[in-house]
Each structure stands twice: as C-alpha cells, then as structure tokens.
Amino acid sequence: MKPFQLSPAQRRAALFIAFQALPALAVPGWGLAAFIPATASAAATVEAAAGVAEARPKAPTITIDPELSWSTDAARVVAWVRQSRDNGKLPFIVIDKPTASLLLFNASGKALGRAPVLLGIGVGDQATPGVGGKKLAEIGPAERTTPAGRFVAKFGRAVGAQRVLWVDWNTSVALHPVITTNKKERRLQRLLSPDPADNRISFGCINVPTKFYRDKVQPLLRRNGGMVYVLPDVTPVEEVFPRLRLQRFETTPGQLVLPAPSATPTDAPAITVEPVPPADAPARPRPKSAPRQR
User: Fold this and answer.
1) Residue 191: its H or E element
2) For 56-100, where are the alpha helices, taking DSSP H only?
C-alpha cells in the first residue's frame, strides 16, 4: 500500500488554511493563549503594587511633649482620637490614671495644658453596680473606683446647686474642683505630690486644681460638653479602647509612630451629645435630688 501523499496543490491549500487559523489561536481562554505563562501579568502586578507602596503616605510621628508627661498609653489614645476624629467637633480630655494627670485638648486636637488630678482610692476600672445611688458613707473603699472608658461629658447640677462636669451620670462620677472640706485627707498637698499613688483619695470623682478648672476646663466645655477618655489601672488599654488594636506604633524614646492617615473625609463626624438627665429622672436611684459627686 502506498503511503498517503498530498499533491502540490493540496499542500498549498493546507498551508493557506493553517495561516488563516492562526489569529484564532491567540483568543484568551482557549487555544495557545491558555498555555502562555503568566509571567508578564505577574510582573505587571508586582510593579503596580510597588507603585501603590511608593504612593502611600509614610506613618506620621507624634512627639510626646516631655512637659506634659504623657505615658505611652496616653499618647496612643491622644493620637488615635486626633487621627480618627473620634471626638467629632468637641474638645476632649484624657485622664491618665497611671500618672494621675489630666490632658486637655480643643476640638482640633491642640494640647491646651496638663494638670494633676485626684482619683478614686480604689484601684480598678469598673464601677460597682448601683454605686451611683448610694450615700458616700455607704461606699466601701473597694467601690471607690474611677471607671475607665470613653464618655460623653456635659455640665449639670449636683448636690447643693453646684454645677460639675458629669463624666458618668449613672455612677455619679464627675470632674470638679478639688474638695477640701476634710482637712485630714490633705487633698491640696496630694495634688502637689510627685508620686501618683498619693493622688488616690476620692470616692471615684476626678478632682482638679481649682484654677485650672475655672480658667481652662469650664470655659472650654461649659456650653457643649466634651469627650472624656479615662485610661485604665489594670485592664489592658486595648480592651478599653479596642480601636487601638489597629494602630501601629513604636515606643521609640520621645516619639510615637502611627499609621498613615486614612482616606476619609476631612470633615469631623458629628457626635450626638445626650443631655444630662434632669434631677427627677425616673431612671435615677434617687430621683428627688441631684446626685452627689464623689
């Protein structure tokens, strides 16, 4: 049997058909295109990623002012509030319990000053349930804590028609001028002590120097109130302020390295400020009178 052979005319016709089919082999998803290595595509992806990395802004560095004596945790909270605008359009206060100090900021995050504070004698970060409805004599030493957390604070009436900055109305925790009625407690001397342990004396309220309260806190927060961030004694700060977990930081001397600003609108988000309940609010344990600051 003779092997099959094409005539010259048949070979020319076969070559013509093959050349006509070549463009179809390059269609993506089938033909030869399915077997072409993705090296060029991978290289393009790497180059694009490199371009994004170069365009991404570098993490800003926040310098800790040594005169304000910020602790690392306080600096982290301040930086988080500034970056995220968690305070909205309100001024804010950071209570650094480990250093027994107050840091005051305007709505744009500018530091306006620092002051020593007196805190609850009890070490802890939670308020005992129902403590806001007790008389002072009924509150045991372990219950005299200054709770940690994020609070919307506003001025309101207390016992004796005095107006104070209510940090947490339900637990009767307020920020007010230092109380000096009990001379044995030596509260003024405690404010001047360099040892933060000496500043634990109150029933849970935050006592500040009278002049600082009158000249800085009152004028700034009298009308609309503000945000108060109280750092913890023993609870990890990330548990009290969970968003700090998203924050990259390095504890280099005198500096705090933060993540790059997020691509969010520059307008500060609005914060709804709940008014302080009236003195006869039915939800209060003692509805007939304003709560006593402690």
Assistant:
1) helix 187-191
2) 72-84
